[in-house]
Amino acid sequence: MKLYTKLFLAALTLLFFSTATTTVFADAKSDYEFQYSRYRQNYIEYSILKKDFLANPTLDNQQKAVLAAKQTLSSRDLSKASFAAYLLDLCQEKQTNYTPIKPLLDSLRSAKAFFLSEAEKSKTIVTPANLTSFTEDYLINVVPHNRSFRTGIVACKISQLVRIQAQSKNALDVILPKLATPLSTPLQTRIDDLQLLGNKINDTIDTFTDKLYTEEEISNIDNEYYFTGKIETIKKIQTLQLKWIDGLIDIDLNYAHS
Fold first, then answer.
1. Residue 46 is part of which domain span?
2. What is the pTM for the complete model shown?
3. Is residue 14 part of a domain?
4. In 3D, which of 195, 245, 252, 242 has the Cα closest to residue 5?
5. 44 has a pLDDT exceeding 50
6. Is 60 exposed, middle or buried (0-12, 13-18, 19+ CB in 10 A)?
């Protein structure tokens, strides 16, 4: 077996077991971690100043609390915008161009724009009345954007599954020309089984993705168990992918020639 094929199969296995965060663009991840760290710090400061105001409700303490709330809201929405950007990078770095998840990515882009806009809008907060008005409008409009994070996380896992499928097919395409012809019946059976399994995995991924847009899934998006069934399905797909890779290695080791 040629060294190239060995390396190809090793790379395919590494792709399967590696997590997406090891290859995502560092800037997006670092920006999210920075913005979230700022939000946590600002929230702590706001909590202290709010407590001071409640204990001693002077105008000075009120203004300090409002200013701290303003900074906290801004950093919160900047951290959410950077998280949306981070998820987008996680999905897009796979370069799968998998059309069925496009609406989920579009939702992340919309969320990113919304939270950036809200971070800018919070700068106009000066009085308690401003703070109340901002919060009321925010709570009305934020729901679908917060939900996009949940579906976006699932989209990232789907893009990883699709990428593995593409790499698996490429690996098979490398091996097929190395097989001696005419193909023996056992070998042809192995190839047919492999191709059938590949199609089954593709269909399972498509069905899994399509289900995300059903009324039942949309109505359960805020449920605390939203990810439970999806994790189980993803694990099943990964098990099938491992079986596929094992089948490919069997063909390469036992039938391919240099």
1. 21-151
2. 0.84
3. no
4. 252
5. yes
6. exposed
